[in-house]
Amino acid sequence: MKHIIADLEQRRTKAALGGGQARIEAQHKRGKLTARERIDLLLDHDSFEEFDMFVQHRSTDFGMDKAEKIPGDGVVTGWGTVNGRTVFVYAKDFTVFGGSLSETHAQKIMKIQDMALKNRAPIIGLFDAGGARIQEGVAALGGYAEVFQRNVLASGVIPQISVIMGPCAGGDVYSPAMTDFIFMVRDTSYMFVTGPDVVKTVTNETVTAEELGGASVHTTKSSVADHAYDNDVEALLQMRRLIDFLPSSNRDDVPEWPTFDVADRFDMSLDTLVPDNPNKPYDIRELISKVADESDFFEIQEAHARNIVTGFGRIEGRTVGFVANQPMVLAGVLDSDASRKAARFVRFCDAFNIPIVTFVDVPGFLPGTAQEYGGLIKHGAKLLFAYAEATVPKVTVITRKAFGGAYDVMASKHLRGDFNYAWPSAQIAVMGAKGAVEIIFRADIKDAEKIAARTKEYEDRFLSPFVAAERGYIDEVIMPHATRKRIARALAMLRHKDLENPWKKHDNIPL
Ligand code: HXC
């Protein structure tokens, strides 16, 4: 028996070495960890249970019958825990055939996807790979499609997270693209459908991998990625933090963690957060951090469409999704990018039973040909659609402006907002006073005195929360310093909210 056990140990040691010491060293030299080192950092100590460690490729073409068979075949798969909660994980092993996907490699991922779905737990993919195993051809393509199909079936059922920690090209980009979140590592990771060489051939553009699909491109311009981290360690530790915010599946409630932050904490500084001058900005993130438990806020898409802020926090230890117009950027206006960013976040929250807290300070939709030609109507409709279909608890606080269509969109009472509060500084109207008066009193436009009087009249009548409150569109005008307490009480009351949309196969959100 002893020699049998020794043989197992030997096989395990060999498999754990992946593509061998030299390739591991090359990986380290590039500032990257190996697949197994990454998994160790992601999961609780000693919690990883590996599957299919001895799986090998079965291909024989292009000399693969003679090539060394490396156990594991370029991907490490299994499950473990993050702060005691089950997660499934697969990590591409760049030291084995560049992490490329073969038929057997795909089967390992599929097995983990099936288990994650059956057992209703999040799945995290760590990417560092060269795309389809070139020697395998269509078997690899088929493998990708099988993985994609499983991504789609799991969407909205279990959280799916992708972390790009090296090259990610060709077939490898579309699985992450169908997961809920994509994170990248600065300088060592890049994502593109076709690489710089193909780009050069087809479009004659000369571009580096970093310029084409580096972390800065995807977190700012393309919005493909939700955030970037400086290195592997930071990225993996932040994934642990993210997992703590997420329910295990769409049938689970949000996790509840101990908190030392009392629910009825007043923050007097909020009474002066909104400046007297309505055109002066302030940082809406200050409100989020003063409302969330222990100021802990996990921001999503921080670098893209910064005129709206989205992310996770907790109230009384339970996760909430914050969506907030940001007056510091473009005065918090809603444009196409901001609408798409927030719509996707709202839909994630709704799919996973995460209550949504919305802070509103929005001067309207952004006018102009660039926006209209770019499809603002359709993109704005995404956010409207997302809020309107959401059945999770929705608590809205208007801090200052709520103008025009943007008032309707931002989780208004009319879109089944459960608690719609306003601060005394709120201004709820079709538009700002100046614009309104210039339209309805166009005849007096040259008479500055008259216009000033009309503007004052408009401001006094409409630029307050009280016209909306008189109609019941605002449930109550609250003190800014009591915002956390009011939200906490509302969410506690809404804990058993029961609301269903009519049965349908699926909706037809304006894509
Ligand atoms: C097989 C691969 C491979 C691949 C890399 N390797 N990519 N083996 N299939 N796709 C192997 C290399 O031969 C090498 O083996 C090792 O991995 C490391 O690769 P290097 O090139 O030395 O590393 P580096 O210089 O860092 O470059 C990494 C890379 C490059 C940028 C990813 O390897 C590359 O461009 N690979 C090909 C990418 C590609 O075109 N993939 C197909 C995409 S098409 P040794 O033995 O020397 O260590 C696709 C279609 C699917 O994916 C579409 C489905 C929708």
Q: How many H/I helices?
A: 19
Shape: elongated
The CATH architecture assignment of the largest domain turns out to be Alpha-Beta Complex
Chemical compounds bound to the protein: hexanoyl-coenzyme A
- In total, the number of domains comes to 3
Residue share in helices?
25-40%
- The gyration radius over C-alpha positions equals 26 Å
Per CATH, the superfamily of the largest domain is 2-enoyl-CoA Hydratase, Chain A, domain 1
Q: How is the CATH topology of the largest domain named?
A: 2-enoyl-CoA Hydratase, Chain A, domain 1
Work out the strand percent.
15-25%
Task: Compute the number of strand runs.
Answer: 16
Largest sheet: 8 strands, mixed
Structure, explained:
The protein is elongated. The protein has helices at residues 2-16, 21-29, 35-42, 103-118, 138-154, 174-177, 196-203, 209-213, 215-221, 232-245, 284-291, 336-351, 369-373, 376-389, 404-409, 433-440, 448-462, 466-470, 483-493, and strands spanning 49-51, 75-82, 85-92, 123-129, 160-169, 181-185, 190-192, 227-229, 298-300, 308-315, 318-325, 356-362, 394-403, 419-422, 427-429, 476-477. It folds into three domains: 2-245, Alpha-Beta Complex (2-enoyl-CoA Hydratase, Chain A, domain 1); 268-426 and 465-496, Alpha-Beta Complex (2-enoyl-CoA Hydratase, Chain A, domain 1), CATH 3.90.226.10; 432-463, no CATH class. 37% of the residues lie in helices and 18% in strands. The protein is of the alpha/beta class and 511 residues long. The protein is built from 19 helices and 16 strands. The site of hexanoyl-coenzyme A has 17 residues, from helix 5 and strand 5.
